[in-house]
Amino acid sequence: MLNERRLEVLRAIVQDYVGTEEPVGSKALTERHKLGVSPATVRNDMAALEEEGYIAQPHTSAGRIPTDKGYRLFVDKLAAVKPLSSPERRAIHNFLEGAVDLDDVVARTVRLLAQLTRQVAVVQYPSLTRSTVRHVELLSLAPARVMLVLITDTGRVEQRMIDCPAPFGETSLADLRARLNSRVAGRRFADVPPLVQDLPEAFEAEDRGTVSTVLSTLLETLVEETEERLMIGGTANLTRFAHDFPLTIRPVLEALEEQVVLLKLLGEAKDSGMTVRIGHENAHEGLNSTSVVSVGYGSGGEAVAKLGVVGPTRMDYPGTMGAVRAVARYVGQILAES
Amino acid sequence: MLNERRLEVLRAIVQDYVGTEEPVGSKALTERHKLGVSPATVRNDMAALEEEGYIAQPHTSAGRIPTDKGYRLFVDKLAAVKPLSSPERRAIHNFLEGAVDLDDVVARTVRLLAQLTRQVAVVQYPSLTRSTVRHVELLSLAPARVMLVLITDTGRVEQRMIDCPAPFGETSLADLRARLNSRVAGRRFADVPPLVQDLPEAFEAEDRGTVSTVLSTLLETLVEETEERLMIGGTANLTRFAHDFPLTIRPVLEALEEQVVLLKLLGEAKDSGMTVRIGHENAHEGLNSTSVVSVGYGSGGEAVAKLGVVGPTRMDYPGTMGAVRAVARYVGQILAES
DNA sequence: GCTGGCACTCACCCGGGAGGAGTGCCAAAG
DNA sequence: CTTTGGCACTCCTCCCGGGTGAGTGCCAGC
Lengths: 338, 338
Prior knowledge:
The structure is a homodimer of 338-residue chains. With 338 residues, chain A is of the alpha+beta class.
């Protein structure tokens, strides 16, 4: 039932609606696009598209707007990811290159994405589970107080304060530090637990309690921090769709404040390639009128975390997808360099 | 000209307006408050208050609303900071106590403040300039690559990657680490520069370049990170004043995205005691219709950073001030304990 | 299968009138 | 001099009804 021209009509409807934010009618369509047919024909096609659930009318005598299903078809079949212009690409590169540390990379990425897409940007910190351990450092702060610092190959640093069950000498500390690092440095995070299990046995009885405490804190950090952090930005862009305010924006802001929701959102996306979730495809209710475009990024070929944008279902998909993909690539490069 | 009763009238106007969000008239005032006079008298008082610029009418035949000047008088003279109930205090304490590290403390504080005040919360990370150095750690990642980790007494950790001009041996590294720490550990950040100036001289010629590089990176970190970070939350609360949407909320969201703006905002506040900036008292244009309530917090008696909330000028000042003060105290306690 | 014509349906945009809250002023009372 | 009730006036808000126009669905003809 959906011949070539009808798909073309759907594409035209999506494009116009995204541009004007108003329901688009048959006459306007034939004027703005070279469809080669009359409004009456387009009306028939529209009726068919509506029958199939790709478009809908807000009320009887209004134009049509795409449904979630319509956007889905558009994204899957009709839209080509729009590559960025080379000045844009250069700007991205320059902007990201100035970053001084991981926090800064993430912060800059968020700003960049938000500006490029004019939407809300979400960037996940590189994940610990997929990262490897670069170094574990132990610092004695007081006789029975140790600070554990964990450094990953993505430049992330986590620290924990540890109260020891018994005083712990500098020599023992140095010993533990050396042994720990020789075992876990360069290892993937998930591989660490079995490698350190027998460490307490190598120590004097009086130190074993402390060693165990340190180890369990290390493993805890591993697990806890698998709940990954993220950063968002560009929320002011939400105000651009002032129409249905504030009914739309309220639940979105609320959802964005819940890291858990966002993490789940990014987690649902495919590990490789770009994922677009449209409207009701998003599990979270508050995001039912938004679309999420996300993609994995990483320093090597492998994705270590995800980033993306959240915007109204009525968004410029080709442009947004292009920007998201480009930013992910450049962030990957920057991470690989540092 | 402003006798006791007129102040009482102003107080009543502020309270009612904050509650109803609608201009308040003379009749309604006498009904809701025991002023002991008739509406006509109140009208006279209102005329006087308007004359002095404390209240205004949106249009001729409407009730009055407080001006910025009116709120100012209210806050300075008429409002008592409202202490929290003890269940609330207990809830704060329990909620903050579960934090595992500094990031977590800040994150929880933001959530807490946002929930308590139902407004946008801003929490500054404990400042490096006022903090002292707990430890400096140097890690060799490659023959000519060193990672510098700086740990402060507030639990904050900063790291920097350093490319050395020449390979740097483990012994030299350990030497530098020891010397550095013996000089700067426990020192205030601002005091560090002169203390390390002559360090390169203690090393072999071949290592001096690297030592200088490390030192300058350390001092850089000191300066750079004096531009402090902060965390915000509760932006969804902005949607509660759906009236003048989105004209009001847009610039506010934009301002809140600019860390620089926020830092300046908090920086302008007094170092000790609570600061309330009302409407146009805020330098930033986007915040002209909001008030900022902020206060310093710290682990000892001394403030190391600030926190506060941003809300509409029409806010519950006593309640907000009470919540902000209480949260600041508890955060201070938590920081002191860790 | 495409096209032009045509009647029909609503949302949107005024303009005007009723209603009402609130004010300012004034004259009288305390 | 302050307070109070009365009163006329202002002007915002709400609601109603008709006109307008974009857009549709259907149909008959090509």
